[in-house]
C-alpha cells in the first residue's frame, strides 16, 4: 500500500530535549513557519529554549525558504514548551528526539511516543552514536516504518541533516522529510543503508582517530595539527579545536561505539585520551581553566551556541564595535524574484552579544553605509529597483534603525545608483557632510547630513557616448580632509582589468564645473575591478602621504581581493601611476566578490563583506582572513561604531 504523508496544517513538530541542539532544531522549524512544541522536564531548560527562539528566529529565517503554505503576514510558526510528553505529542506529525545519548533512555522514550503520538506521526532520533534500529524494543511493528535517524549537526552554523533508515523505514519518508528540511534551510542527505556514524561522522571519526594517534605517538600537538589543516583546506573549522568544543569525554564515548562494532584497538585512541586528559578533568572548552587538547590559556573559537559567529581564530582580537552591515537582497534568502526590490536590509551585529538583527527592512538594494557617533545617526544609499533608472535614494536613521528620514528621495532623478557613502566631519570648515559615488550616474556627490546643499563634485563623461560606459562608473569613495582631496574608484567592465582610482580636490576649483575640473589626477589603472575604498593618513607621514585600501571584485588571482598602496601626498605628476603601482600590495585574496570595507586600525585589521554572504576580519599585516559569520545573505556596505562612543 502506498504511504501517505501526514497532513501538517496546524499540527506541531515536537522536539524532545531543550538543550543546546534541541532549541536550535526547534528554531529551524519555527523560522520556516511550522508550529513547534518543545518538551523538557526541566523548567530552566524550557525557559532558555523559548528565549533562544525569541532572540534568534529572525536570524534563522534569513536562510529559510519557509513552508509553501505559510502565512505571509506572520511567517513564523507558533512555539510552546511542555513538561510531559503526552501533552506535547498528542497531535504531532513529526517528533525529533534530542535527549541525552543513553540507549536505555531513547528506547523508553520511543515507547512513550508510540503510545501517545498519532498513528501517522514520524519519529526521528537525533542521536549521533546510535542507529534508530537499536531503539525499537518498545515500538509497535506498524510504527517502525515511520522511525528513522534525523541527525542535525549544529544549526545555524552547520546546516547539514543526515537521514538514515531503521531498516524498515518507508522509503518515501525520506523524500518527504528532505523537502521539509530544505524549506527550513537545511541541507539533507540520506544514507542508503544503516551505517554507524551515518556519512559525514564516519569521515569525521577517522580524522579524530588519527589525531588521537598522532598525539599519543608524540608526533605533533593540537595547534600544529590545526595550523596544517587550516592552510591545506582553507578551513575555518579546525579539528582539534572542534574536539575541545564537543568535549573530549563525548569524543571518547562516540569512538567507543566504533571500537565495539569494529573491534578496534583502544591503546592509542580512547585509552590515551582518558589517561592523559579525561581522568584529569581536561575535557576541553567546558572544563574552563583545565583546558583540553589546547591549554586553558588558549582562546577557543566562538561556540556554535552563537547564532551567527563562526570565527576559527584562536588569537584574533575580540570585536569590540557594533557593525552595521547591508544585505543588498540578492542572496539565497530572496524567496522570490519579484521581491528583490524590497529584500534589502540594514543589519546590526552587536559587539556585546555577537547577534545579528535586522533593524531596517524592505529596502531597494542598499549599498553604502556609514555612521556618525556625534549625530547618533546611520546613513545609507539605496541603488533602487532599476539600476538603469534614476531611482536611487539616500536615507538616515537613528542607531537602532528607528526615526528614518529621507535625504534624497527615489524618483527625484537626482541620483541613479548611489554606491559607497562616507560620513565626514570637516574639521577645517566645522561642517558635517556625506560623500558618495553614483555608479550609472558616473559622478561623485556631497550633501549635508540633513539632506540640504546637494552638490555634484565630479561628473564623468562616457567615452562611448552611453551610460553603459563602465570605465566611467564611479563606485568607492574616500576623503582626505587634511589633504583636502577626495579619492574614488572607477570599476570598469566586469573582470576586464579596466579599473582605476582617481583623486581631486575636495572642492571644485574656482570657475570650473564638475565635468570640466582640471585637478583630476589618475592614481592607479589596470586594476581588476576596484570597489569600496578607505584611506589612512598619519601625522608623521605628511611627506610620504597616505595609504589607500580597497576591495576588488574582479577576476582571480588579482581580483576578489583586499589591496593597499602608498600614495604621495604632494601634487601628482605623470609618474604617479608608475610610482604608486610599485607600492600596490594584495593583502588577502580568494573572497567571493568582496564589496564592503571598514578599517579597524586599533587591531591592525579590516572588516570585509562579500556578495557570497560572508563577513571577514583580515589582518592587515599578515593578510590572514577569518570568517566572522556567513549565511545566505548578499553583503555590500559596512560601518562600525564602538559602544559608548
TrEMBL record:
GO molecular function: NAD+ binding; oxidoreductase activity, acting on the CH-OH group of donors, NAD or NADP as acceptor
Chain segments annotated as coiled-coil in the UniProt record: none
Compositionally skewed regions (Low complexity) per UniProt: 295-314
Annotated region (Disordered), positions in chain: 283-314
UniProt GO BP: fatty acid metabolic process
Residue span, 3-hydroxyacyl-CoA dehydrogenase NAD binding domain: 13-191
Family matches, as InterPro entries: 3-OHacyl-CoA_DH_NAD-bd, 3HC_DH_C, 6-blade_b-propeller_TolB-like, 6-PGluconate_DH-like_C_sf, 6PGD_dom2, LDLR_classB_rpt, NAD(P)-bd_dom_sf
UniProt-listed Pfam families: 3HCDH (PF00725), 3HCDH_N (PF02737)
Leader peptide range in chain numbering: none
Domain of life, per lineage: Eukaryota
Alphabetized UniProt keyword annotations: Oxidoreductase
Segments forming domain 3-hydroxyacyl-CoA dehydrogenase C-terminal: 197-290
Protein name as it appears in the record: 3-hydroxyacyl-CoA dehydrogenase
Organism: Rhypophila decipiens
